Amino acid sequence: MEKGAGAMNAALIHLNLSSLGGAERVFAATVEALNQAGLVPDVYTLTPASPSEISRFYRKKVRFKLRLIRPRLPGVYSKLALTLKLPELARCDVVLNTSGSFTPFPLAGTCRRYLAYVYNPYPLYNPALTPENQKYARFPWRLYFEPYRGAALKTLKKARLLAVSSYTRARLRVLFGVDSL
Question: What's this model's pTM, rounded to 2 decimal places?
Answer without folding.
Answer: 0.80
